[in-house]
Amino acid sequence: MNGRFLTIAGRIWLGAILVFLYAPILIMALMSFNASPFYQLPFEFSTRWYQALGANAEIREAALRSVLIALVTTTIATVLGTAASIALFRYEFPGKQALRILLFPPIAIPWLITGTAMLIFFFGIGMGRGTPAVIIGHVALALPYVIVVVSARLATFDATLEDAARALGAGPWMVTRRVTLPWIAPGIIAGALFAFAVSFDQFVVSYFLSEPGDATLPVLIYTAIRKGFTPEINAVSTIIIVVSMLVMLIAARYSKFGGER
Amino acid sequence: MAEVRVEHVTKTFGDFRALDDVTMDFPDGGFFGLLGPSGSGKTTLLRAIAGFLFLDAGRIRIGADWVEDVPVEKREIGMMFQSYALFPNMTVADNVGFGLRVRRVGAAEERRRIGEALDLVRLGDFGDRKPHQLSGGQRQRVALARAIVTNPRVLLLDEPLSALDKALRVDMQIELKRIQREIGITTIFVTHDQEEALALSDKIGILKDGRMIQAGPPREVYRNPIDIFAAEFLGEANILRRPGGSLPSGGVIHLPATATDASALAVRPENMTLSATEPAADGLSKMSGILAQRVFSGALGICLVERDGNVVKVIARDEDLPDIAEGDTVWISWKPEHTIVIPGG
User: Fold this and answer.
1) Contact B85/A at CB under 8 A
2) pTM for the structure as a whole
């Protein structure tokens, strides 16, 4: 009886969590399909806000900029992060432990602090705000995620395979390309998806580092909300959520199940 | 194919001397076993020949080339690892063909040689499988095929059979020897299993604490161990006398002519005979003791005889043993030529 009670209580608890997590999102998504601009019920299905979105050049531009920044960030962070992970895995060098430990705090430091620090830094070196600064900032944020995910995958890699490939005549580059990279590919894909998500969803750092008129999508949404909420924002937010969740689902699939053979 | 020579090779890891002035010759086409307890440096020596580590001192020659400064991938070696190290994402054929692809031999040539190598290890039909679909013994054969398909100058095997169960291990020993003979490749392998070393090798090298204690044909090393460690590591030995010590009292022990006070004396358990009464024949060395334990292991009977607090082990065909029980007084005898003189103590 007690066990059954706990099971039921557990299910209710789980249900409550899911409701709190997803109900606001669901309502927002529903409202993005409601014809009324003032959230009036009864619900009347309409795609007018999505059409309005398509006609809104400002949002389109910001969306395009967000995707481009995310793609550039993903490419740089994935290449650098994978190379760093392999170096950390393969070689012993002075300060290796310190470097490993230093990789984690950026994940924990509030983005507000990181953003402020970056803003001061970029002005300090005379670079100022702008898309390059945003990209560098995003890469710095995404890099630890890539390294953590790729390193986790590398931990399951048998280093003897590299020895075997070398004994068969493969030079260092060939060993990496033919043996190491294929094994850690799921980790690299997962890391890249994380990097994309970090960049695409990034608000604080983008807000601090982007120039006015050069906003990414999250920054634009924030600015728009301050001027007055329109269901267009519901529509664009719904799109962002769907994209982000898809990316994360794929990332979870690769980082968790991808490697087992 | 090539001979290998290791000359005064020394390698330290921090304070640990993994290899200490090791010198050994591996003539062309031979099968060589490196053995020793764990930490003796046998695997380090193998990896030094392969090129996985830089030497602190010494030289290594493969064929006509001094290779100590040549990286692994340029040494033209074949190596088989204890874990086999098959590439898990590749098929058996791709695993075997890896070294050929690196050498760009061309697709047709590659296919032909993969086929040949797989046939040689009797896995002709397994090319399309993935490593995880194979048994331990099959994986071992794939690893061997992969190591020899590039026609390396020397084949290096790190504990090649240790991951297999006993019955399979014996089959694979025979198989390994057959393949090695067939292609005539100089082969050096590392093992901690002395029986395996004796069964496979034309020449063995015993290592201890990074030093090469003794090298030579197995029979010679077995019959004339250079010190007590070698005598006890390779097979079993009843030490009759340590250097400077005295012989067991109360028996008749004929000293070999070469024995000095500084040498140790030992007898192999299988060279001793057990009897219930004192053997009458002249010229035998003999002593008596109490039978402490008798173990039946199928073909063989193993007897532990206690005398003066020491235990002497005797191994014989069980049916050749006299009708004796634990606690009985028994006599041990052996031919004088079976007393081994160990010069190094």
Assistant:
1) yes
2) 0.78
Are A169 and B103 within 8 A, CB to CB?
A: yes
Cβ distance B149 to B97 under 8 Å? yes
Nearest CA in chain A to B86: A161
CATH topology of domain B245-342: OB fold (Dihydrolipoamide Acetyltransferase, E2P) (2.40.50)
Contacts of B103 in chain A (CB under 8 A): 169
Higher-confidence residue: A73 or A46? Answer: A73
Residue B197 one-letter amino acid: A
Q: How many domains does chain A have?
A: 1
Residue A44 lies in a domain: no
Q: What is the pLDDT of residue B190?
A: 94
Nearest to B132 among A166, A171, A261 (CB): A261
Closest CA–CA distance from residue B78 to any residue of chain A (Å): 6
Q: How far apart are the C-alpha atoms of B163 and B157, rounded to whole Å?
A: 13
Report how far residue A78's alpha carbon sits from residue A184's, in angstroms, rounded to the nearest whole number. 12
Kindly list the domain boundaries of chain B, sorted by start residue.
4-228, 245-342
pLDDT digits (tens, 9 = 90+) for A191-210: 998 899 889 888 888 888 88
In chain B, the residue whose alpha carbon lies closest to the alpha carbon of A181 is: B89
pLDDT number for residue A192: 92
CA dist B176 → A47, A167, B3, B117, B145 (Å): 73, 20, 19, 13, 11
Render pLDDT for B87-133 as a digit per residue (tens, 0 to 9).
Answer: 998 999 999 999 999 999 999 999 999 999 999 888 888 989 999 99
List B312's β-bridge partners, or say none.
B305
A258 touches chain B (CB under 8 A): no
- Decide yes or no: CATH 3.10.350.10 for domain B4-228: no
Domain of residue A160, CATH code: 1.10.3720.10
